[in-house]
Amino acid sequence: MKVIFLSHNSKDKPIVEPLAIRLRDTFGQENIFYDSWSIQPGDGIINQMNNGLDKCHFFFFFVSKNSLESKMVSMEWQNAVMKSAQDDVKIIPVRLDGSIMPTILLQTLYIDLFSNGLEVALKQMVDVVQGTNNFQPQNAEFHNLEAVCRNNDSKLEIAINAKYYMEPKSSFIIVLVNTHDQVEVRMKQNGMSNVRFFPEISLNNGINACGWGISVSEATVPGFPFEIIGESKDGNKINLVTVMHEVSQNQWEAIPTLIM
């Protein structure tokens, strides 16, 4: 059996540990390098980590804001990248939040737990180890539009970018788990815009939310983002679910949303 290495930051254990336990149940604890049981009191952390890397064939790198800021995790995945160039090591990033992938991993297929949920991610991890060809590439579905969001709880800033070509229809819905009385949503720039409120939006994942629709007559073009501001009226946190684009009359699709 080939060894599986789980590289993560301790702050992400609430989501990583259930995956580690399920993988242990499938492949056996001796085949999973997970620090909670692979490194014991008195062990040298660096030595044990290097031993785990030397034996590993599947290196799952859990990508999050926490792990990208961790020097230890950075050392693990960078060592794994170097090892993969020489040995039979497969590096599989697992995306936990809206963080942007490190440049060196942009060409690597990844598992998107953030978008697809824990059960789908777990199945894909098992499939990768077992050699089942169900691992989907990150660009299996093309999206010209992308929303980049900055949220400091009481204020939300959204920049919707056309990455490759002009989008003639600039009509979007900002989907929030907030009420109309709690949040005001508007265009960042001064100008004419049509704003409407959707009190009930039912999403495929079962979430019920509200939507703030904003549209303008101009197209969204590369280099000129469509910018939206959301501000809390009562000081409560603004809870963003997704951003949707009107692809045809009254037909909406979620666009990739990165939370910074």
Description:
With 260 residues, the protein is α/β, with parallel strands linked by helices. It folds into 2 domains: 3-130, Toll/interleukin-1 receptor homology (TIR) domain (Rossmann fold, 3-Layer(aba) Sandwich), CATH 3.40.50.10140; 145-259, Immunoglobulin-like (Sandwich), CATH 2.60.40. It has 7 helices and 15 strands. The protein has helices at 13-27, 35-38, 45-55, 65-68, 71-84, 113-116, 118-130; strands spanning 3-7, 32-33, 56-63, 90-95, 111-112, 145-151, 155-162, 170-176, 183-187, 194-202, 208-216, 226-232, 240-248, 251-255, 257-259. Strands 2-1-3-4-5 form a 5-stranded parallel β-sheet, sandwiched between helices. The chain has a 5-stranded mixed β-sheet with strand order 9-12-7-6-15, with no helix packed on it. It has a 5-stranded antiparallel β-sheet with strand order 10-11-8-13-14, with no helix packed on it. α3 (45-55) runs parallel beside α5. The relative contact order is 0.13. The model has no long low-confidence stretch (mean pLDDT 83). One of its GO terms (biological process) is signal transduction. Pfam families: TIR_2. Residues 1-122 form the TIR domain. This is Toll/interleukin-1 receptor domain-containing protein. It comes from Bavariicoccus seileri.
